[in-house]
Amino acid sequence: MMLRLDNVTKVYKVGAFGGKTLTAVDGVSFDVPEGQVVSLIGESGSGKSTLGKMILGLVPVTAGSITLDGAPVRPGKEYYRHVQGVFQDPFSTFNPVFKADRVFQLIREAYFPAATAADWDERVRAALRDVRLDPDQVIGKYPHQLSGGQLQRVLIARALLLDLKLLVADEITSMLDASTRIDVLNLLAEIKGRGLGVLYITHDLSLGNYLAERTVVLRHGTVVEMGATDRVFGRPLHPYTRQLLSAVPRLHAPWEDAEPVTSCLYHDGGATGGLAEAGEDHFVACARLEGCLEERLGGRSGGRLEGRLKGR
Ligand SMILES: Nc1ncnc2c1ncn2[C@@H]1O[C@H](COP(=O)(O)OP(=O)(O)OP(=O)(O)O)[C@@H](O)[C@H]1O
């Protein structure tokens, strides 16, 4: 399995009558191979969820392409057999008036109508055990009788009942307490061990990033740095990545300012378009935060951005 994003762009129509546009994602390219976790980090509004929704077929792509094993995203029963999403607030996924395990019934009706009740019950129990839940503690309970971490695991169990290839995990640990968060992360590690690809979307450099083979850092809808996680975190090159890293409290280590950026690998290296290759599996955008934006917007930036650049 391989998910491939190639120059993906999303422009939303905003404002009254959709008269204005907002470019939420601008020319993003990366892959999620099977058996790997790729983490997508960036602050609020950087376009992470929009990317997740495009991969899940929930919002259409404006330009570029997203393919799974070479086939374009085609929202529908077949696609969702292989690609599922789990989101930040598990409570919002469950209807409070139905028992939590009803989510399994919906999967049975859509995908396994021929399964007998006994067979289905056994499959559900096995999936719950796979996510370290005791089936007897979950089956027959209402959502409010379960914790956020348990519900998150129920949703992962539901996804595992399908012939899943890719899981899009959007901020799935941000509402969980520290120990439950680690349980859910361990679960993701197991999932990738089964050969699934996971896109782990997060706004902070949480533990989840260390589970990821690759990291993509998104800012204002464009990739500023990406590559092998140990390279991106071990030798962050872009000022934005350094800023994100310096905001992480380090135990037993004194605070120190991030190393100043003295050169721009992108422009000094003569790169044009896309990202500059900084080393093996390590790519970086222009180091001048606004410079990249200026270049990206080209003539579209108008006087506003120029004014801001000159004023600095
Ligand atoms: N349906 C929509 N219509 C118009 N604009 C939208 C829509 N969804 C998102 N946006 C805008 O697109 C930009 C990117 O939003 P997105 O939710 O993808 O960011 P994010 O990085 O996931 O942020 P967060 O972590 O806060 O969810 C934001 O400026 C947001 O306001």
UniProtKB/TrEMBL annotation:
GO terms for biological process: peptide transport. It comes from Streptosporangium sandarakinum. Residues 3-245 form the ABC transporter domain. InterPro entries: AAA+_ATPase, ABC_transporter-like_ATP-bd, ABC_transporter-like_CS, Oligopep_ABC_C, P-loop_NTPase. The keyword Nucleotide-binding applies. This is Peptide/nickel transport system ATP-binding protein. Keywords: ATP-binding, Nucleotide-binding, Transport. One of its GO terms (molecular function) is ATP hydrolysis activity. It comes from the Bacteria. Transmembrane segments: none annotated. PANTHER family: ABC-TYPE DIPEPTIDE/OLIGOPEPTIDE TRANSPORT SYSTEM, ATPASE COMPONENT, ABC-TYPE DIPEPTIDE_OLIGOPEPTIDE TRANSPORT SYSTEM, ATPASE COMPONENT. Coiled coil: none annotated.
